[in-house]
Structure to design on (59 residues):
């Protein structure tokens, strides 16, 4: 059964919602060109992934 909202204190409510927050994306440097990219994703700047060119990019 749910507890009425006026009986839940502010500190209890905020403690329950403590894990709801924004987190920074896991960015790492591309070993080929040095641009920041998401881990385990193809680099949007050079098109390389795991040491080989996967996507052709125009430079």
């Amino acid at each position: 059964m749910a507890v009425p909202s006026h009986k839940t204190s502010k500190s209890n409510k905020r403690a329950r919602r403590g894990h709801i927050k924004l987190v920074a994306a896991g960015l790492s440097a591309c070993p080929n060109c040095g641009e920041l990219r998401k881990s385990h994703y193809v680099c949007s700047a050079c098109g390389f992934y795991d040491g080989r060119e996967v996507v052709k990019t125009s430079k």
In short: DSSP finds one helix and four strands in the chain. The chain has a mean pLDDT of 88. The first helix runs from residue 10 to 16. The CA atoms of residues 32 and 51 lie 7 Å apart.
